C-alpha cells in the first residue's frame, strides 16, 4: 500500500487500494502452500498456538491443521474486523452503543451519528465478508474440509485483547476474551544524561513529547508539515522532544530536541512532562494513560481516530487535524497543559 495514501487518506476506508487484497492473497497462498513448514511444526512438541488475528484467516487455518488449541491476539480496539467474530461482537444490535472501526465516533451518539455508525458497520461487514470469501477459497484449495474462517474465529480457545477498561467503552465481553492492554507499561527509568539535562532545563514550564510513531516518515510526510510543527513549537515556553529520523534541512528552534529514537515511557513518566503530542497508536495511548499524561491527538490512519475519540470522550485529551494551523495547535496544547487535571 502506498504510504502517502496512509498520510493523506488514512481514515477513509474507500481509499484503501486493491493492492491490500492482492498482498493478502499472495501471503495467504504462500503460507498455506508451505507443506515443509507444516510438517516441521507437527514434529515439534507444540502445545498451544498464539496467533495475531488481524487479516490472518489463513494463519488460523494453518494453525488448525496442527490439531492443538489456538488462542488469538487482537491488537486493535474491539470494534470491527476479525474481533467481531472472535469476541461475539458481530451482531448489528451493538451498532447503537459501540462505535464502528474507523468511524471516529464515541459511545455518546445522536441520531445522525448512530445512522452513520450503522453505515460504517455495514461497510465493515461487507469488507469482512469479501475477505472471508477470498481466504476461504484459498483455504479450501490447500486444505479441503477446513471450517470456514468465521467458525475458526468463533471457536478459538481464547482471545487476548489489547484493551483496558480505562481506555474503552462499556461493552459485554464473553469469558474467553481476556483484556491484556498495557502489558508493556512499566514505571519510568532515568533518562539518558543528555536528555535528562534538556528536560530538567525546562523548569516549571515542563516538556512536551512529540511522536507520531512510524507514520511520521520523512519519505512520505510533506516537508512543510515538519516546518509547520517546528515553527509552532518555537512559540511555546515549554521545551519539546521530537521523534524524527529524517534529515533536517531547516533551522531547529532552541527549545526543541530532535532525536531518531527515544525512551518513550521514561519521558512520559518524568515529572516534568506536561503533554504527549501523539498519533494515538493504541500502545502509545495506553502508556500515556498509565503515566497520567494528557494527550493532544493527531490521528493519521486506521484505528487511531477511534483511540483518539476514546481519549477525548474520557477527558484525557483533545484532537487536532493533520492540517491544523499553528494557532489551533497552540490552543490545543495550552488547553491540555493548563486546563486538564
Automatic annotation (TrEMBL):
Pfam families: UDPGT (PF00201)
Alphabetic keyword roster: Glycosyltransferase, Transferase
Its membrane topology: Single-pass membrane protein
Single GO molecular function: glucuronosyltransferase activity
Enzyme Commission code: 2.4.1.17
Broad EC category: transferase
Reaction equation(s) it catalyzes: glucuronate acceptor + UDP-alpha-D-glucuronate = acceptor beta-D-glucuronoside + UDP + H(+)
SUPFAM superfamilies: UDP-Glycosyltransferase/glycogen phosphorylase
A Gene Ontology term for the protein's cellular component: membrane
Family: Belongs to the UDP-glycosyltransferase family.
Entries under InterPro entries matching the protein: UDP-glycosyltransferase, UDP_glucos_trans, UDP_glycos_trans_CS
Database matches in CDD domains: GT1_Gtf-like (cd03784)
Location of the protein in the cell: Membrane
Signal peptide coordinates: none
Record's protein name: UDP-glucuronosyltransferase
